[in-house]
Amino acid sequence: MAVQRRERRLRVRWREEVPSGKAFINPETMKELAILSEVEVVIAGKKKLYFTAMPNESVPRREVWCNADELKSSGVADNSIATIRAKRVE
């Protein structure tokens, strides 16, 4: 039987200070979703993006901050709602 991965719907925000390939997430949210290193961001059930998760106390619990240019090139609008979960370990 497969283990159920925890997930939440959070707002994805554009932030210039976030390095490319990284996502800043509140440490409490990371703990709650059992995110250890990588995070999967799913927008509208179609677009899947993967980032290296970085704990950051200044990020609100209901938000994930990602690199603005990376999100723009993927066609993700600022303040989009996305499903956030730990990346599946194969």
Considering the chains and any ligands shown, give keywords for the structure.
2 helices; 90 residues; Barwin-like endoglucanases; globular; mainly beta; six-stranded mixed barrel; 44% strand; 6 strands
Question: What is the second-level CATH architecture?
Answer: Beta Barrel
Report the structural category.
mainly beta
- Output mean pLDDT: 93
**Could you name the ranges where pLDDT drops below 50 across 5 or more consecutive residues?**
none
Terminal CA distance:
15 Å
The biggest beta sheet reads: 6 strands, mixed, barrel
| Sequence of secondary-structure elements | EEHEEEHE
The CATH class: Mainly Beta
Number of strands: 6
Radius of gyration, rounded?
A: 12 Å
Q: How are the strands ordered across the major sheet?
A: 1-5-2-4-3-6
Kindly give the count of domains. Answer: 1
How many individual helices?
2
Give the overall silhouette.
globular
Q: Roughly how much helix do the residues carry, as a percent range? A: 10-25%
- Enter the CATH topology name: Barwin-like endoglucanases
Task: Report strand %.
Answer: 35-45%
Describe this structure in words.
The chain is mostly beta strands and 90 residues long. It has one domain: Barwin-like endoglucanases, CATH 2.40.40. It contains two helices and six strands, in the order E-E-H-E-E-E-H-E. A hairpin with a 3-residue loop joins strand 3 (38-43) and strand 4 (47-55). The radius of gyration is 12 Å and the shape is globular. The two termini are 15 Å apart. The model has no long low-confidence stretch (mean pLDDT 93).
